Amino acid sequence: MTEVCYQLELADLTGHYLQVQLTFAPDDNQPVMLSMPAWIPGSYMVRDFARHLLDLQAFDGDGPLMVEQLDKQCWRLTPRGQAVTVRYQIYAFDLSVRANYLSGHIAVVNPAASCLAVSSHLTKPCLLQIRPGQAPTTWQLACPLPRADSGGLNDFGQYRAIDYNQLIDSPFIAGELNTRSFELAGIRHHLVLCGDSYTDIDRIVTDLEPLCDQQKQVFGALPADLQDYWFLTWVVDDGYGGLEHRNSTLLLCNRFDLPNPQQPTVTSEAYQNFLALCSHEYFHTWWVKRARPTELLSYQLAAEQYTSQLWLYEGFTSYYDDLSLLRAGKNNQPLATRPCQ
Predict the structure, then answer these.
(1) Is the pLDDT of residue 256 over 80?
(2) What is 177-327's CATH number?
(3) What pLDDT was estimated at residue 1?
(4) Of 108, 91, 87, nearest in space to 7 by CA
(5) Taking Cα atoms as reference points, which of 269, 262, 285, 241 lies closest to residue 330?
(6) pLDDT score of 338 more than 80
(7) How many other C-beta atoms can be found within 10 angstroms of the C-beta atom of residue 256?
(8) In whole angstroms, how far apart are CA 327 and each of 164, 220, 280, 292?
(9) pLDDT at position 6, please?
(10) Triad 289, 50, 75: Cα angle to 5°
(11) Is it the case that residue 137 has pLDDT exceeding 70?
(12) Domain residue spans of the chain
């Protein structure tokens, strides 16, 4: 087994639990360290994701393995020369773009807050299988990772990451999805809305495309390694935020932030703020996800990681998110200061 395999199942919508199974082949019989990130890149506070992990068990073909918890987010197990399977649950009820949320209406999952790292296998390919579990048959899935099976764009199934870092940089959303796509410089961009929203998604796509093009003009081209891009949008009664990822963003917005289809010529301040949020996170595709402070070139996710340059990376991004609205002709009134994460 050359891949590290993760299986995430939407196991208990009412109780808000994900069931996670991790399978890997150890290199030898030496102790293996398992760990959960303490924070997620792009949101630089320690979040202590491991506090939501429950009932961790490990076993191989001969039966259970001893697992020793070393601290609040690290475990040690000793293999016996066979493939190891680790199972645990994640409590998922955090209404934010940083962690996990599971209910009868939606699933929002960040692998950074769900998937244990295998210390000796961080650079190995990862196979992610996402199973619907208790989800209704009408639910679809939007995941920015490339498919590892023959499924369609919004199907549950198998996805592949080149390593653990790509895995934890790839959130996914499941539910009754409303999806539209557009192409910019030969790269497909997907807008996904999930939540109880009454809006004109085609208008949003029409407004997003020139905003993305303005950001592309700042840097001269889209990133050479960008295969596609996803705006994963979670629509709620009351909420606002966004978190950048290498080829996607996870957005949280109020349903009233979206345009009213009965007012096709009205651009409200709330909708303008939503477009600015999209613009902000898309700018991060270059500025932070690919160009970032030296201190953060290699993320150390076990503890705080300090830099004095976030004012530059977040400040410039906030400047250019509004400037792109101006250049694209989408700002008809001044915008208030907005938190993004």
Answers:
(1) yes
(2) 1.10.390.10
(3) 64
(4) 87
(5) 269
(6) no
(7) 15
(8) 38, 15, 14, 25
(9) 98
(10) 105
(11) yes
(12) 4-174, 177-327
- Poorest-pLDDT segment among 90-94, 177-181, 267-271, 286-290: 267-271
Q: Which position has the token pair 């299988």?
A: 129
Task: Kindly report, residue by residue over 71-87, the tens digit of the pLDDT.
Answer: 999 999 999 989 999 99
Fold for the domain defined by 4-174: Immunoglobulin-like (2.60.40)
41 C-beta neighbours (distance < 10 Å), count:
21
CB atoms within 10 A of CB 2: 9
Among residues 201, 305, 206, the alpha carbon closest in space to that of 255 is found at 201
Q: How many residues does the chain have?
A: 341
Contact between residue 135 and residue 13 where contact means Cβ atoms under 8 Å apart: yes
Which secondary structure element, helix H or strand E, spans residue 313, and what is its range?
helix 310-327
Residue 190 near residue 261, CB atoms below 8 Å: no
Q: Are 208 and 189 in contact (CB under 8 A)?
A: yes
* 104's tokens: 């009868």
Give the angle subtended at the CA of 53 by the CAs of 52 and 58, to the nearest 5°. 180
Q: Which amino acid is at 60?
A: D
Place of tokens 């001269």: 220
Cα dihedral 308→239→253→19 (10° resolution): 90
Split at pLDDT 50, 70, 90, the class of 332 is low
Asked if the domains at 4-174 and 177-327 fall in one CATH topology, the answer is: no
Concatenated DSSP letters of 275-288: HHHHHHHHHTTTBT
Please compute the mean of the pLDDT values over residues 254-274 and round it to a whole number: 92
0.85 exceeded by pTM? yes
